[in-house]
Amino acid sequence: MIVVSAATGQYGRLVVERLLERVPAAEVAVAVRNPASAADLAERGVDVRLGDYDRPESLRTAFDGADRLLYVSGTDLGARIPQHRNVVAAALDAGVGGIAYTSGLGADVVEEGVLGEHHAGEQAILRCGLPATVLRHPIYSDFFISPDLAAAIETGELISSTRGRGLNTATRADLAEAAAVVLTDGNRFGRAYDFTGRLWTYPQLAAVLTGLSGRPVVHRDVDEDEGIIGMLGIGPFIRTGGFEYQTGDLEAVLGHPATSLEDAVAAALPARTPA
Fold first, then answer.
1. Residue 182: exposed, middle, or buried by beta-carbon count in 10 A (0-12, 13-18, 19+)?
2. What is the pTM of this model?
3. DSSP class of residue 143?
4. How high does pLDDT run on average in the chain?
5. Angle at 213 (CA atoms; ends 173, 160), nearest 5 degrees
6. DSSP state at residue 147
């Protein structure tokens, strides 16, 4: 039995979909805060269980019978460390066979801030004595490559404060597929993966928008961190090359190339703007 936590989130749902392509629904269970939100999965034969990271008593039952547990990290900053303790304790109590944890790229060496919370999660899982797998995610491409890009096509201008530096983001879909592969392939379980997508830049993104729309889109650098870059506070790290680190882990696990910039943009903008 494979149990996926937080399975009604955008990433978790994608993992379940990829698992159901590989194993029968009877071999998949989900642990979610609101079982009603996973009613569609129950109708497909998935075992839907109450599992709330902040309610330790719910996790023991949620993880029962799990040969492998995918612990999808919580989104409540500041609450993750006690959640790590709750999940690990429940996994040990339930006799879980092994844990895979969705961490952040760089969490193996960074002990402060958001990555510090992932660092604590990695350490809690690696020290618990169960077979452990760490899936270190880059920032999702989906944050940058979205339907909002239609505005750049309309104005003919794409702005960023990146100074042309690269980003190693990966799509949720690719990362979810990789998790499904790891969870169903014993030869890939029990190690740490540093996942990165294909490196891309905003000038390249402008060129892709031009090619897909047939309308010229130019990139313009600005001084202020705007949009998603400003919201995430990552501008300084991008400009110093902090997001240009690359590994072959994602493509090695997938067994095929990661989603290209062109394909990601085409999927985000299915209705192409006519020239």
1. buried
2. 0.94
3. G
4. 95
5. 70
6. G
